[in-house]
Amino acid sequence: EIVLTQSPGTLSLSPGERATLSCRASQDVSSGYLAWYQQKPGQAPRLLIYDTSRRATGIPDRISGSGSGTDFTLTISRLEPEDFAVYYCQQYRSSPETFGQGTKVEIK
Amino acid sequence: EVQLVESGGGLVKPGGSLRLSCVASGFTFTNAWMSWVRQTPGKGLEWVGRIKSKIDGGTTDYAAPVKGRFTISRDDSKNTLYLQMNSLTTEDTAVYYCGRARSGFYGAAWLDYWGQGSLVTVSS
After folding, report:
1. What are the backbone dihedrals phi and psi of residue B31, each rounded to the nearest 5 degrees, phi first?
2. Are B40 and B122 in contact (CB under 8 A)?
3. Which of residues 20-59 of B touch A (CB under 8 A)?
4. 10 Å Cβ neighbour count for B73?
C-alpha cells in the first residue's frame, strides 16, 4: 500500500501568514490522485482539494494544491481564523486508499 | 443539500457484532459509490471499505484489517448504506464515518461528503 507522510506535524502561524503543508508518498501517485481534507475538533473531515489541485465546491481560492509524483503541497496563502485546523492528505491512486497522519495548523 | 446521517454506534463487547447505518439525502444515492472510513486517536484516519453503485457492479472492497469480519451493503430503495461489523476487537474502537465516494480511473476514491460520524466502542 502507498504510505503518505505529512510534514510538519504542527505548524504554528499567525493569521494572515502563509501556510505550506507537505505530503510525501512512498510510491508514485500517478494521475495526481491526491486529495486534501480539513478537520476541526468534533467535526467530520471536509474535502478541500481533489486531483491534486482541483478545489471542492465552496473552497476559497486562498487554498490551493500542487505537486506530482511523490511530493504534494497544500498552500493557504493568507491564514484566516477559520483555517486553524488539522489537514490530511489522501491518495486514491490504488486501493487501499490511504491517509497521511495529519498536520495541525495552530495559532502562534 | 447533501446529507449523510449515521446511526447504530455504541458499546459492544469483544467478539460482538454491531451494524451501522448511513441514510443519504440530497443526491441520487442509486448512482453513488459509498465508503466507510474510521478514525482513532492513535491511528488517525483509516479507510475501511467501499461499495460501488449497482450500475457499476455493486462490488465491495475492504481494508485488510476488516476483511472477512465487516460487510458493506446498500439498500437503494431506502437510500441507506450499512456496515455490518462482526468479531469485533478493541482495535475496532473508533469513530466511523460514511462518505460519498468519487472514483478515480483506477477504482479507488476520494470522499466529497462525509457523515457526522458514529462512535463504536469495543470494551468488556
Report:
1. -90, -5
2. no
3. 35, 44-47, 50
4. 13
- Nearest chain B Cα distance for residue A45, angstroms: 7
Question: How would you label A53-69 residue by residue, b for 16+ Cβ within 10 Å and e otherwise?
Answer: bebbeebeeebbbebee
CA distance to partner chain A, nearest, from residue B117 (Å): 7
For residues B39 and B95, is the Cβ–Cβ distance under 8 A? yes
Cβ-based contacts under 8 A for chains A and B: 73
Q: Residue B44 in 3-state DSSP?
A: strand
pLDDT one-digit tens code per residue, A65-106: 999 999 999 999 999 999 999 999 999 999 999 999 999 999
Q: Which of A37, A56, A97 sits opposite B109 (nearest CB)?
A: A97
Chain A residue numbers with beta carbons less than 8 Å from the beta carbon of B114 are 44-47
d(CA A4, CA A99): 6
B107 close to A (CB below 8 A): yes
Task: Give the cell for residue B5.
Answer: 446521517
Residue A43: phi, psi to the nearest 5?
A: -120, 160
Distance CA A105, CA A14 (A): 10
Question: What's the pLDDT score for residue B21?
Answer: 98
pLDDT in tens, chain B (124 residues): 999 999 999 999 999 999 999 999 999 999 999 999 999 977 789 999 999 999 999 999 999 999 999 999 999 999 999 999 999 999 999 999 999 999 888 888 999 999 999 999 999 9
